[in-house]
Amino acid sequence: MAVLAPITNPIIWQETKSQQRRIPAFIRRWWLTVPIALIVAYVAIALTLSEIENPTRDLAIHAIWIFQIMMVIRALVAGATAISREHTERTWEPLIMTGISARHILIGKWWGVMHHVAPWMFGLGALRLMMLPVLMLAFINRYAWWTFQRGGNYSYSVMTTYDYSAFSVSFVAWAAILAVVFTVMLTVLEAMSAAAVGVAAGAVTRRSWLAMIAAFCVRFLPVAIFALVVKQQVGAGPSWRILRATPLALADSGSASLYQMVLPRTTWTQTAHVNALGGILLAAILLTLLLVASLVIAWAAIRASGALPREQRVEHLANYRLRKKSFSWRPS
Questions:
Q1: How many domains are there within the chain?
Q2: Residue numbers of the domain that contains 280
Q3: Global pTM value
Q4: Nearest to 111 by CA among 154, 75, 159
């Protein structure tokens, strides 16, 4: 873990400062706009719980998706310019001539991008966590309305013997706790993998705009593929069927599955929690694969661009000093 420390890896400090300098001035002046907008959106969505006809669940899920896309785009753009900027500004050769290893360059660039994306990551995590109780209450509202409406369709004599125990609601503690844990884990994985994809695209293409296009294609290709899979499976079905489709977790990085985890146990949700675990696991695997593959590709591209691993760098320096010493002692 020493390579992650700014003291031992100056690339982290250099990349963090470079990312900060590239933030447009109007964003630095109006940086409070985003958190205020999130709070306003959350309050507005929570207030829709007062009316059963309001689409609270759909509004909450779409708010999470929109901010999630914004965070991913920010991470991809920042990562794509981290290494490609060194090539376009002709500072790559001086950087590798300092003797910094490929591993230090990779970790420094990636971690510097993570520093830049951290506020967006925390915002997405906070929004996901705050929406969990709203989504649970929205479901309870809908389920209670449906239950009592069904009971009200019976005559009074029938209602006196109507069995409402079949519509009981019970809180699933283990699922709610796991929902909080998985929310944090998937949010961090989302930011880390998006930043790594951007860094890898920049290291391979060495051109900022080309790196952005490549990073966007790599990250959003699974979203498009599995969204089409869900469309084929569900068709024009209701939104609750779309949200329960397991392949959707691979398209939205588990956001819909996290919603399923906080639902109470009812006649509608007997198997929802176990099914949601499968979607969350698939989302975690996909994000982990993107993260690991991107870091490996970026490391290989950095080495191919001239940066050497530490062992070869030490050996090369030792051989150079030995040749220089033997040359200086050569008899005339």
A1: 1
A2: 8-143+171-309
A3: 0.84
A4: 75
